[in-house]
Amino acid sequence: MKSWKELPIGAMIIEPGNSIEYNVAQWRVFRPVLDKNKCTKCGLCWIFCPEGAIVRNEDESYEVNLSFCKGCGICQRSCNVKAITMIKEEGL
Amino acid sequence: MKSWKELPIGAMIIEPGNSIEYNVAQWRVFRPVLDKNKCTKCGLCWIFCPEGAIVRNEDESYEVNLSFCKGCGICQRSCNVKAITMIKEEGL
Amino acid sequence: MLEIRWHGRGGQGVVTAAEILATAVVNEGKYAQAFAAFGPERRGAPVLAFTRINDNEILLRTQIYEPDIVVVLDKSLCNDNGVGRGLKKNGIAVVNTSSSPEVLLNIFPNASKIATVDATRIAIEKLGVPVTNTAILGALIRATRIVKIETIENVLKEKFKGVLAEKNFNAVKEAYERTLIFDRGGLL
Amino acid sequence: MLEIRWHGRGGQGVVTAAEILATAVVNEGKYAQAFAAFGPERRGAPVLAFTRINDNEILLRTQIYEPDIVVVLDKSLCNDNGVGRGLKKNGIAVVNTSSSPEVLLNIFPNASKIATVDATRIAIEKLGVPVTNTAILGALIRATRIVKIETIENVLKEKFKGVLAEKNFNAVKEAYERTLIFDRGGLL
Amino acid sequence: MKRVALSGNYAVAYAVKMADVDVIAAYPITPQTPIVEKLSEFVADGLLDAEYINVESEHSALSACIGSSLTGARTFTATSSQGLAYMHEVLFMASSLRTSIVMANVNRALSHPLNIWNDHSDAMAERDVGWIQFWVNSVQEAFDATIQAFKIAEEVLLPVMINLDGFILSHINEVLILPDEELVREFIPSKPLFNRLSPKLAYTIGVVGPPEYYYEMRYQIIDAIERSRKNINEVNREFGELFGRTYGNISTYMMEDADYALITMGAVSSTAKIVVDSLRKEGEKVGLISIRCFRPFPKNDIIEVFEDVKSIGVLDRALTPGGIGHPLFTEIVTTLYDSSKIIPVQSFVGGLGGRDITIDDFKQMYKIIKDVGLSGRRKPCIYIGLRE
Amino acid sequence: MKRVALSGNYAVAYAVKMADVDVIAAYPITPQTPIVEKLSEFVADGLLDAEYINVESEHSALSACIGSSLTGARTFTATSSQGLAYMHEVLFMASSLRTSIVMANVNRALSHPLNIWNDHSDAMAERDVGWIQFWVNSVQEAFDATIQAFKIAEEVLLPVMINLDGFILSHINEVLILPDEELVREFIPSKPLFNRLSPKLAYTIGVVGPPEYYYEMRYQIIDAIERSRKNINEVNREFGELFGRTYGNISTYMMEDADYALITMGAVSSTAKIVVDSLRKEGEKVGLISIRCFRPFPKNDIIEVFEDVKSIGVLDRALTPGGIGHPLFTEIVTTLYDSSKIIPVQSFVGGLGGRDITIDDFKQMYKIIKDVGLSGRRKPCIYIGLRE
Amino acid sequence: MFKTIKDLPRDEYLAPGHRLCAGCTVGTAVRQILKASGGNVVVVTATSCLEVSTSYFPQTAWRVPWIHLGFENSAAVAAGIESALKALRKKGKSNEDFHVMVISGDGGTFDIGIQALSGALERGHDLLYICYDNEAYMNTGIQRSSATPYAAATTTSPPGARSIGQRTHKKDLVGIAIAHGIPYAATACPSYPIDLMNKVRKGLDVEGPSLLHVLTPCTTGWRFDPSLGIEIGRLAVLTGLWPLYEVDRGVTRLTVQVPKREPVRKYLELQGRFKHISENEINKIQEIADKNAEKFGLGPIKE
Amino acid sequence: MFKTIKDLPRDEYLAPGHRLCAGCTVGTAVRQILKASGGNVVVVTATSCLEVSTSYFPQTAWRVPWIHLGFENSAAVAAGIESALKALRKKGKSNEDFHVMVISGDGGTFDIGIQALSGALERGHDLLYICYDNEAYMNTGIQRSSATPYAAATTTSPPGARSIGQRTHKKDLVGIAIAHGIPYAATACPSYPIDLMNKVRKGLDVEGPSLLHVLTPCTTGWRFDPSLGIEIGRLAVLTGLWPLYEVDRGVTRLTVQVPKREPVRKYLELQGRFKHISENEINKIQEIADKNAEKFGLGPIKE
Ligand SMILES: Cc1ncc(C[n+]2csc(CCOP(=O)(O)OP(=O)(O)O)c2C)c(N)n1
Ligand SMILES: Cc1ncc(C[n+]2csc(CCOP(=O)(O)OP(=O)(O)O)c2C)c(N)n1
Ligand code: SF4
Ligand code: SF4
Ligand code: SF4
Ligand code: SF4
Ligand code: SF4
Ligand code: SF4
Ligand SMILES: [Mg+2]
Ligand SMILES: [Mg+2]
Would the ipTM clear 0.85, i.e. be above it? Predict the structure, then answer.
């Protein structure tokens, strides 16, 4: 860990958005699985996900980035066509 | 003047309304003179005086207590019948 | 002095578990400390709690760096290697998992004893919700005999009202029964 | 060192008078301090201001307890005996009043010189309002020659804009002319 | 009497309940919140008959407490860190208007960076406010000091602040001997205090004190807090009679024959004792002083135990940037000066913002103190555990 | 350059104007108000091109200043007494977030009783906040320190507080050498500061510093304020080159051969000099030290002049009720300890809440200091002018 | 209800000898308020003209219990007193019974005290909060507050080459209070004593928080002759700049009708603080009055 | 104006990896807000869940400049930033140009921050103040605020033998803001992203102060399953407890109509914080919804 000389001054963090390095996947008990076939690309899961863990691709398709997903299940509930299912994470 | 031992504790004044001992008459440049003959006993000067310097007697007549009057002239202006006149105080 | 580290998630009541144990210890006339690794605890986030147990007054007020015992309330936490960190040589690990204890050997290389129980299943059976903090106590006691199970019963009765105390104690008992224990000598 | 105490009323600009004098002194290359007796100043209430004058830098920062000169902007203040308090032996008093200086003898028992001027009348004549703080300066200068009257003129020009400066200076000059001075030897 | 396991925060809450407090005005802040939560619960459940004012800020919390205390109600509040800092202005008022407020301050670091963990910078920055200040070392002490505080505050007419270390004490469950409520009531009867705001008296409170009076009025606080030493001792004695436990203004450990002493405040003292024990086993004549009553500062008690000491270490858990020394260090040095003793004093800082002070840290400090004692030369302040 | 008569408050206002400040956020309070009134006038008249924020409180004033300073604007505020106390929490933030705010604090007593007059209790209660603190002795110093403050604050990235005595300095008109604006601009060029809140950078400021980092982050302030000593001296030197006046961290009077010294802060020093002169005439070898730069505390400067002194008096104009000593006394004693000098120090308190400190008071103090020097025995704190 | 001047009690709870400026209508207002209260009241005042002028040690002008703490917290202090009384009575520890009332200035209410006020209103304490509004920080020498009216000159909203005086509009205190859902709020002015005093009574008698916003013309700060305060207050009402109304459990009611309004110019002309303003600003101020008239149903402007 | 989800920008200015609870709708709301802002914005946040969860050193979730000072002063900090930018631009010292926005919690807005907010609104700074409202102090563990709704359980408004839970009613933030005469204020909810995001744009584009009051259901504090946040937000709207409206230069307009309202029971049942309440309280809460419906013109209750 950094010494006092190496820390940025004034309680600043100078790398915007470096929280992507923080492991939230570990928080997850359930994991969303998105069925691209069922998906109508409505985007609701994307706009409702509290984490920004759902990625909107260039082709307007959506997928889950599991490194960023905490497994809350909001996406599943947002999906009118039930394209998302929550699956229990297993330890070990 | 009192020593620290003699002062009331906790920044209190324990004699209600002892400001009557403070000389405001000294502030006065003009002095109101109330002509009891003209006075209709309407009470306006009494209720408007900022000082409470106008006394409402038991018989509902009014008079000025000059010890409490700062000479602002509000009473004079309140009096519809011009029963009050302001007279210059003279030093010396 | 016995030092225990508890691993759970925000919202799972891991601090409560550490406290129930401490109260039981105290009720048995000994001394205990229970506390959490303090920080902004968020629902879902891994959290730590600690219990210290001693026959005499406990003066130590530092954090616990090298626990004698590690208790894991949620097996998915074992995905991260943090759970085994610092466990003393010949320490004990107690984990909520349906797996058998051997599977955990390389997660707790220092452990001389590993106990597992499917606390989640038991919690659902006995409480109707997957709140595993009381069930795991049964496994811990089974593996360590730190306190008498009846003492836990009494603490639960003080802590929870009416039927909830009973349900929780049922979970404790059930877990106590179903705990699998493995020591370096083999499954007990 | 010369110490002056000014008596006036809240709203009469007594502090301004003290300051104008100080500025004049400074402009003549000497040193001065001007300040008020600090307190919640209320319209109509008697207030004090002070000026200290010296050839060299002034270090003293205490209040003025024994002034060399007392200036009274409003004669009705003389009803209270406070105006004469502390005046040094052989001090000077300058009072705005239409009365003659002798009348003030027992108010300023220590004064060796008493000057009076009807500053109120002059102010009304020259400014149109009974603001006596500049007029009285004229009397003070006449009685003491602390600064040159032209220096005051320049200060007024800085302090007030346009015609107001001129009017005020007229008041100063007029008062200067009309001041009556009495010393223990008799009217000068 | 019951032997239970309770956290420092709950211990305070129970003490307040047993004191049958009349009014609570407090604002939540970590790590104090469990105190007010527990009190809310007591009130909601009818176990404590009090008005709980859900104020909108700490500034208002303490302001409301002043109003309440002067109306004759036994009054409690609790805060921490930013909350205490936000009260700064009002703290002076609570003492100078001579209230009897009792406040628990759960010590926590000050921003920035924001940090919810333990150090002493919040309370140390309020060492001029004219409050009596206790610092406790255990959950039991937190309870006992709270009970004592009401009695002292109401006798002396000065507010009392009880400092307990955030998390380390506030959130730790440990053994507490909970006395019977009747005994507590015997100690501090539940009676209305003097209502200075009654229409029957029509006092004017919180006046303008012009230069002719201000000095004397402020001096009364100096006098009151100096005189409070007697009350504090007396209350402690009475407490001992009823509850079988007493506390000094300082608590000492192995100081009888110590050559090297460390001075601390708050819960870490307890860890330090372990180190003292282990060093004693190694033959080192070390000892420990922990200050319980920081205001009024127990200079005589301290000087007494310093009698034969060769060197002293002072552990500050708060900073005075750019000052001649950190707060406790400066007070201790001045104490020595006061007693005309020349003992080298080594300044330490440690445990800021929840940084743990470990057994090894204490060992290191004792080692340095001994070095200083032997060489007679102290070093500039040593920042224990700082990553250089 | 112009020789004028101006009040301390106006001197500050003129300095701020000449510094071409960008943002002012301030709240009125006696006796500071004329500063912000004058600045309002400058802005209204177009003589100063700045945003003047009419904040609703001092807490917000300083908060707005922090936002402004971090956005790169030269930022000024002014306050006094209750206002400073109300800022307490934010003061720590202004230093720890490393702003360059300059603030004039017009020293005034704290409530209760309410008192608008001069003493030092407001600023002394903020001696831990990590600000650089100047204390000035004359209107000229008030002006000069303000100009210097901007340069120092912007170099060191620490806020600077200029303390000037309420009324005694703030409201006194005296001689001021007003430099030409161009010269001031040469000294402190009007340029935007580093905008740390730019979308181009997207920094995150005011973070949570967990126990692993908090200590190091706070230590940076200790480091910065210690390093600022160099900047302060350098700025002062440059100031001297341009303006022909320099100031030390302390100012001394007749200390070369003094046996007996008095230490003061603020405007009363000036009166004390008169007493020194008169005592010198009587053959007494007395001297005077006045502390100009209180934070960082000028320990080396002080120790140096103490070399051959026989006894010292310290005049505190603020109280630490129940403390081991009043603020300045404690710092001086610790300074002596630091230098391993054993000189008796007599503590004095005086001039609280506008109580005048007279020539006679100073004479009395010098007499006592001499007695202490001769007897080697100091007395408990002496409250000069207190009606017993 | 008070109907005529004759009805009004003789008792004076604000003693003469206070140090308010000669001609200060705050003195008038407080006399009226305390008369209406009947004296069984504890008063809290924030730092202000009223505070320093009535409690200058060793003299007090208060004949009722009174407390001043600071500038920002009078509502909180009142809340503490009210709660203490409630607790002590409930617990049988006291049989005292009195009303709790705040009388604070506009600065201590609109600006630095609004948080404490908002909190006290929200929590529903049984107290009457009275703001006497002299439209600036007068105690410190006439600085703008958020109650200062548009275009008025103060020392921190001075007119100048780049300033017309106060740039912003007066905060709507009663509107804000009512948005807190309190049962009673009203405006008043000591130039209309009966109206004011009846509102004080209503405010005291209602259960829960109530608020009175009282305009108190200030000779020093508004720069008019000391004798004019009451007249200027009357003109504020007669121009429509200060409509007298109340909001009683949600119902807004004009309490003093103005059949024919005076033009605002008449009001402005008398005051030094408006001396600098241009026709443009006068028109804008007239618009404010006209809007008030529309909102509260005042009469048209006198020809 | 955003019309469909497809319109919404791809850019994420709140990085993943923040530490808000799993299922926290504050994350959703802030993502939507920042998307709408386009990223050219400086954000100020008061101490809160959002603050501690996004700026835990050494990691930040912010991709826009962001500052946190304290709990009570976010509006003041924003005012300082806005003024600095204005001054520097005016003086030609800077050519940066960005919006200033506050995103603070209900505690930091309704209670301890309302003074700074009131001042900033009154002075007319050009900034958008967004209050995300999870109806309690969540960061410190679910204590009541003055935004906590009637009867809800929190740790400082616990139900019990002598308590029904929160005793008081929710403060009307938009009402208070509008009483300050600001040009734009609105309510929103991340369950209605288009509505919310358009309001953010309006708030940013309007000159002067604007305010958005955003309801953000909180899984931890309201005690519901983490997956339910968005649904519960929707129910708040559909019951009429959280009408979506705006007040644009004095004109109030419902922005999302609810033709048939759900009964409040449906909303309350899902939440642990209302578990204790009786029929009596449910009826009172239904009345609140009905009053809202009347005030804003929502439809009748579904049969
Ligand atoms: C925290 C704090 N800030 C500033 C002051 C200075 N102050 C005292 S009274 C006052 C103005 C009061 O204004 P207002 O409330 O309108 O009452 P008024 O004097 O106009 O009657 C100010 C700024 C203070 N006492 N405390
Ligand atoms: C002056 C001060 N008082 C109290 C606190 C403690 N505190 C920090 S965040 C918080 C609650 C925040 O509530 P809210 O604004 O509603 O945001 P939320 O956490 O609910 O998102 C409290 C009480 C503080 N940081 N500073
Ligand atoms: S489960 Fe929650 S966090 Fe994960 S993708 Fe779905 S909405 Fe996002
Ligand atoms: S909500 Fe369902 S349908 Fe819509 S984008 Fe997500 S997965 Fe596809
Ligand atoms: S002149 Fe003024 S103070 Fe005197 S009686 Fe008339 S109204 Fe009252
Ligand atoms: S106003 Fe005139 S008529 Fe009325 S009581 Fe006074 S003096 Fe008499
Ligand atoms: S300044 Fe105004 S409000 Fe204050 S006392 Fe004087 S007239 Fe009254
Ligand atoms: S407590 Fe509530 S608001 Fe806070 S992070 Fe968790 S869900 Fe979000
Ligand atoms: Mg005012
Ligand atoms: Mg919240």
Answer: yes
